[in-house]
Amino acid sequence: MIKVSKLCLVVLLTVWITTGCWNLKEPDQLAFSLGAGLDLLEDGQLQLSSQIVIPSGMGGQEGSIGKKNKTFRVVSATGRNVYDAVPNIQLQLPRSLFIGQRRIILIGQRLAEHGIDDLFDEFIRNPQSEMRSRIYVVKDADAKDILAATPIFESYSSTELVDKQEAIGLKSYYFRNFLSDALRPSLQPILPALSLSASKQTVYSGSAIFNKNDGLKLIGFLNTQEAAYANWITGRQKRLVVTSFVKRGQGTVSLKLHTLDRRIRVKIVNHEIKIEVRLKGKGTLVENNSNLNPTKENDLRIIQVELSRITQKSVQQLIEKVQKQYKTDIFGFGESVHRHYPSQWKALKKNWYATFPGLDVKVKVELQCSDPGEANSSIKIIP
Amino acid sequence: MNITSQKEDNDMDIGSNIIENEKTFKTVFQDCSDVVFRDITIHGETRILLIYVDGMINSDIITANLLKPLIYDGLLQGLGTIDSVAQMCAQQLFPVLSTKKLSNFEQIAEFILKGNVAILADGEETVLLADVSNFKTRSPEEPFNEASIRGSKEGFTESLRINTAMLRRIAATPKLKLESMTIGELTKTDIVITYIEGIVSMPVLVEVREKLKGIHIDKILESGYIEESIEDTHLSPFPQMMVTERPDVVGAGLLEGKVAILTDGDPCVLIVPTTFWEGLLAHDDYYERFLFVSMIRWVRFIFAFFSVLFPSIYIVLTNYHIEMVPLELMMTIASLRERSPFPTVIEVFMMEFVFEGLREAGIRLPKQIGPLVSIVGALIIGEAAVQAGIVSAPIVIVVAAAGISSFIIPRFRFGYALRILRFPLLILSGTFGLFGLGIGMMAILIHLIHLSPFGTPYLTPVAPQIARKFTHLILRRPRKRVIETS
C-alpha cells in the first residue's frame, strides 16, 4: 500500500516536472478578449479587432465612485487569415490573449460582401474558441467601430450586444447556430445586423441575407420589421409588436404578441410545390386608438381580423421580395419540403436555388388577442 | 525491600497473622498517603484492620455501620455461630450491596484502589471487601459538542456505572448485555462492551471481543487509546468508529445491531461499525419531522462535498478553465486579482493555513477570550489582508465558505477527515487542474470503497447498494402512522 502510493507520487512528480505541459494561467496573466471584429481593409487585407478587458478598470471594491476608468480597449491587427492576425495583436499586448470568454463576433459589411465562408475555420478548429459567441453583421460601418462604441449600461459593449438579442425579442442565436444553418443544405443563413447611429451608439437594424451557393456573400439586408417576420417564419422570434390602422375603428391598434407559432405545410400537386405558411400569434392589446371596444366580442374580432389581414399582407410582400430580389431560401422552405417529401427532395435539391423564386407560397396569419388590456373602449375626449 | 521480593509478596495469598498482613499491605502502599489503615480492637482481643483510599469511599457508611456498633457494642452475640468476623460484617453489619471475599494480595490491592474498603480480621485468611466507593462525579449534562434542539439533553459522564445505567434506562431489556473487562497494565481501566443480544451482528461482536482482548498497553486514559488499538488502519483520514457522548445515539446504534465500547473515566463512547454516511446524519434527524429533515440532509450532503472541493474547484476554474466561469464573475475575480502578488494556489494555501490556525486557537483559548479570536481573525484576515493586497477578496470568501461548510457536518470528526483531504486536493488541482482534481477524487473514492471497518463496507448503503436503506438515507422516510381501529 505504502509502496504503491510512493510509486504513484514519484510518477506524478515526473509527469509534472518533465512534461512541462503546465497550462496554469492566472487571470492576471491573461488578456481577455470579449469580442472579435473582422473587417476587410481597402487594400484587401483582413483586419482582426479584439476588445480587450482592462480588469483594473472595473474598480473591484473601492474607488468605484468618482472618475470612471476605461474598462476595455480595442486592439487591431492585420493578417492574411484570421489567426495570422492573432500574433500581431499579441505584439501589442503585455498579457497573453485569451479568447475562451469571447462573447461576440462581428463581421464588417465590406468583408461580408466579399464572402465569409473561408473565415470560419479558425473559429471552429481552435480548441480555445468559444462556440457560444453571438454573431452580428455590421451595416454601413466597420466592426472595429462597433467594438469601440461606448456601452450604455455595462462595462463592455460586447456583453451589451449579447443582451440586445433578448431585449429585441429574438431567441438566442449563437455562432454555432449560424454554423449549423450554414452547413444545412436546405436553408440559407441570415444574421442579425447592427449599425452605428450618428451618436455612435449601436443600433439593431434588421437582418443580413447571405447566399451560401456563392461563397457566403452578403446579398442584402432586411429592415427590422421584415427581419421580425422572417424570424417568425423560421421560429427565431420570441416577441413581436404589431401595429396597424383599423379602418372600421378609425384609429391605430397595437398588439403585443408574446406567443408566436408557425407552421409550414407543403403539398406537391402535379409536380407543383405548394407551400402554405401559417403564422399564429397570441398577445395583449396594449394600445387602442380606434373607437372599437375590445371587451366586446364583435369589436375584438374586427380588430383581430384586421390586424391579421394587414400582417398577412406584409409577410406575403416580404416573401415575394425575397423570392424576387434575393432569390435565397432564408425561410427554410426547402427544409420543409425535405421533411414532407424526402424522396422527392433528392431530385429537387440540386435545383432548389432555381425553384425557390417561383414557389407558390400562401400565407395565413391568425392573430389572437387573449387580453384586451386594462381598459375597454379607447379613452378619447368626447367633443 | 527490593522489587522482586515485593512482586512475590503481591502474588502471595494473605496469611492468618494480621500483623504480617498489615506489614505486607503497608509495603504495597508505601508512600501512598491517601491509603488509610485504621485498626480497631474489640473487647481488647479481636483486632480488625480497615484499609481504604481516602476520598474514594463513603466514610459515613463505615462509621455508622461498622465502627460505631463494633466499638460501642463489641461483637454481636447470640446470633448463631459465625465463621468469621468478616462474614459477620458482611451479613449483619454492612448494609452495602456489593461485598466479596478475597485472599490474594494483588487482587485485594486492586479493589482497594477502586474504592472498596478491605476488612481484615485477626486469624482469618480471607479479606472482606465492601464496595463503598463514592467519588465525586459530574452530573449528566448536555454534551457540549453534540447539542441537539430536540431530544434528550443528558450526556454521558466520566463514571462508567452512571453511563451503563443510562443505557439500561433506554433499553430496559435483559437482552442488553454489558460485558466487562479491564485493560491497561497500570491504569486497570474498566471497559464495557455493550450490545443487544439477538440484534447484534455476531461477527462484529466477536471481532470486537478478540481485538479488545488482544490489547496490551499499560495505560488507557481515554477511549481514543482503544480506538487506535483496534481500528483497521491508521492511515485513513476517515474515522472508523463513531464517538458520541449521547446515550440516545448509543442506544440507537445498539438497536441497529452495533456494538458500543464504554470506557471508565471517559464520557466518549465508541460505536462500531460506522459508515461514511452516518457521519453526515445527526441524532435530531430521527426526532424532527421528516420533510424538513430530508431537506436539511441534502443541504448537509452538498455542503460536505462543498467543504472538500470548493477551494480546489475555485483554483481549477480560475487558473485552468477560465472559459467555464460566467463572464461577469470572471471579470470581477480578474479585477480583484490584479493587486495580489501571489499565485492563487499559494493564496488559498495561506488562507487555509491561517484558517486552521484560527480554528485551533478558538478551541484552546479559555471561553472568556474566545470571541477575541473571531474578532481578530475576522478583522485582520478578512479585511486588512485584502485591503493590504496580500490576498484577494474571493479567496477569503472561498476559504471561509469551505471552512464554515465543514462545520455543518454533525459528526465533528468526519469534518476533520474532509478538512485534511482539502490540502492534497488543493495541491493536485493547483498542479494538474481539473485532471488532478479528478484523480484526487478518484483516489478518495477508491479509498472509501476499500475501507471496511469491522467488516462493514464504509459506503454502505450506497456502495454496496441496499435499496431500502439507500432511500432511507437520502430521504428520511417517516415512520408508519398508527391507523385507528374501531
UniProtKB/TrEMBL annotation, chain A:
> To which protein family does this belong?
Belongs to the GerABKC lipoprotein family.
Tell me the compartments it is located in: Membrane
- Where is each Spore germination GerAC-like C-terminal domain found? 205-372
- What membrane topology term does the record carry? Lipid-anchor
Indicate what this protein is called per its UniProt record: Spore germination protein KC
Arranged from A to Z, the UniProt key words for this protein are: Germination, Lipoprotein, Membrane, Palmitate, Signal
| Origin species | Paenibacillus taihuensis
Question: What GO biological process terms does the UniProt entry carry, in alphabetical order?
Answer: spore germination
Q: Name one GO cellular component term.
A: membrane
Gene3D superfamilies, per database record: Nutrient germinant receptor protein C, domain 1, Nutrient germinant receptor protein C, domain 3
Could you tell me which residue ranges the Spore germination protein N-terminal domain spans? Answer: 25-195
TrEMBL record, chain B:
Short name of one Pfam family for this protein?
GerA
Transmembrane spans:
298-320, 370-389, 395-414, 426-449
Show the InterPro entries listed in the entry. Answer: Spore_Ger, UPF0353/GerABKA_families
Gene Ontology annotations for the cellular component aspect, listed alphabetically: membrane
Instruction: Name one process (GO BP) from the record.
Output: spore germination
Q: What keywords are annotated for this sequence in UniProt?
A: Membrane, Transmembrane, Transmembrane helix
This protein's record includes keyword Oxidoreductase: no
Record family assignment: Belongs to the GerABKA family.
Quote the protein name from its UniProt record: Spore germination protein KA
